């Protein structure tokens, strides 16, 4: 054998043999070794229903608390979640997995978490957002309980492996069931598990062109408004007039000066300018005319119930999005309406902005869902006005500035007018 090896080495050369050995080692490694990201980067929870032993070893299955006498009490975590999200389609077949991936960032309370939701085809947007924002993000991803759902998780894991910013900044929470477009449920999950004092409600299709986080955290006026719990900061939203020009985020303006120049040349416009109530109260003409001499945060003075800005506000004590809104239309407006009626005023940031990344819309589904959600929104406004009015009256805050938004905005709703006379 030794003689044969010597003869082969003489014919092929030592270098060839070394190359052959190296390739053999690589083949063995690729066959028997699978890379696994360090748990210090993020944690992938186990949630397969048929392996209860693994589940119990990975995370708590009960919500626990201690009473005043030191007694320990427990509730199954599924009971807590089913109650928390009882207005949605959440059922015994649904599964919510908080922190499916948990960021490596050591977060502080005095920070701003982007709260958003993502689907399979928007995972690249999430990667771009994490790279640009460089701050905490809490996102919900919905998957179906089948092979397609597993495929989505594989794509998500690949993105995590490739993008260090996602590993550093993004907490991912999984909702696994068969109910599609439960947008407000997904928003609430992301908000519930956000780990900072303030949250930014943002759609995943928007790209933050400026350093919003640094701008707000270093602005004493902005921070005083957020700390009060009675203010939300509006980030002006734009889109390209020619939709095809909004496909590549790398071409987006990087400063307000650039943006205003393109706005004045009609290359960029208010987001969804065809539906003025959605964003017009931000007052884009005023915003674009602000300069260094009068560059300050200003209040929204023409609020109306279809207003849907993207906002930063205090997480603790703020209302949750009504989960009866399933699908497109009025779902975000309902979140912002209740926030406003609860006593939170809107203020516009003077320098920061976001731009919409163009994508296709499923128009047929949107039209059907909008029809039903518009009807629900009318009923919802009546309900929330009466419910919060009763709360303010019971708390003896009816004449307090906190109830002023409700008294002004709800006055035009006839069922509210009839009902409020019984309570005041």
TrEMBL record:
Its main location: membrane. GO terms for cellular component: membrane. It is a single-pass type II membrane protein. Keywords: Glycoprotein, Membrane, Signal-anchor, Transmembrane, Transmembrane helix. It is found in: Membrane. The keyword Transmembrane applies. Gene3D superfamilies: Spore Coat Polysaccharide Biosynthesis Protein SpsA, Chain A (3.90.550.10). It holds the Pfam family Glyco_transf_49. GO terms for molecular function: glucuronosyltransferase activity; xylosyltransferase activity. InterPro entries: Nucleotide-diphossugar_trans, Xyl/GlcA_transferase. It comes from the Eukaryota. The keyword Transit peptide does not apply. The chain crosses the membrane at residues 12-33. GO terms for biological process: protein O-linked glycosylation via mannose. This is Glycosyltransferase family 49 protein. It comes from Thamnidium elegans. The lineage of its organism: Eukaryota, Fungi, Fungi incertae sedis, Mucoromycota, Mucoromycotina.
């Amino acid at each position: 054998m030794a003689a044969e090896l010597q003869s082969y080495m003489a014919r092929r050369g030592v270098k060839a043999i070394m190359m052959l050995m190296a390739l053999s080692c690589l083949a063995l490694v690729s066959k028997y070794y699978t890379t696994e990201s360090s748990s210090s980067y993020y944690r992938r929870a186990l949630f397969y229903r048929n392996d209860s032993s693994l589940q119990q070893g990975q995370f708590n299955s009960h919500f626990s608390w201690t009473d005043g006498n030191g007694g320990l009490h427990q509730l199954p975590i599924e009971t807590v979640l089913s109650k928390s999200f009882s207005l949605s389609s959440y059922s015994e077949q649904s599964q919510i997995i908080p922190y499916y991936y948990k960021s490596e960032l050591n977060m502080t309370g005095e920070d701003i978490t982007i709260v958003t939701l993502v689907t399979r085809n928007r995972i690249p947007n999430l990667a771009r957002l994490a790279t640009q924002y460089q701050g905490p993000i809490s996102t919900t991803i919905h998957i179906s309980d089948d092979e397609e759902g597993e495929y989505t998780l594989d794509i998500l894991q690949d993105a995590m492996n490739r993008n260090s910013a996602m590993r550093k900044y993004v907490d991912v929470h999984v909702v696994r069931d068969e109910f599609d477009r439960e947008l407000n449920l997904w928003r609430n999950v992301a908000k519930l598990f956000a780990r900072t004092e303030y949250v930014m409600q943002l759609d995943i299709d928007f790209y933050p062109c400026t350093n919003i986080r640094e701008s707000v955290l270093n602005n004493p006026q902005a921070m005083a408004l957020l700390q009060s719990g009675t203010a939300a900061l509006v980030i002006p939203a734009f889109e390209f007039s020619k939709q095809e020009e909004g496909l590549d985020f790398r071409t987006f303006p990087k400063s307000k000066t650039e943006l205003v120049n393109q706005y004045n040349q009609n290359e960029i416009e208010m987001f969804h300018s065809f539906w003025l109530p959605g964003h017009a109260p931000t007052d884009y003409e005023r915003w674009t005319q602000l300069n260094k001499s009068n560059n300050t945060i200003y209040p929204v003075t023409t609020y109306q119930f279809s207003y849907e800005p993207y906002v930063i506000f205090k997480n603790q004590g703020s209302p949750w999005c009504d989960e009866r809104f399933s699908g497109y239309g009025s779902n975000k407006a309902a979140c912002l309406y209740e926030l406003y009626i609860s006593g939170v005023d809107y203020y516009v940031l003077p320098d920061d902005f976001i731009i919409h990344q163009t994508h296709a819309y499923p128009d047929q589904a949107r039209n059907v869902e909008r029809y039903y959600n518009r009807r629900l929104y009318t009923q919802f406004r009546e309900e929330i006005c009466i419910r919060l009015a009763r709360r303010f009256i019971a708390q003896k805050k009816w004449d307090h500035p906190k109830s002023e938004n409700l008294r002004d905005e709800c006055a035009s709703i006839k069922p509210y007018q009839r009902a409020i006379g019984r309570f005041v």
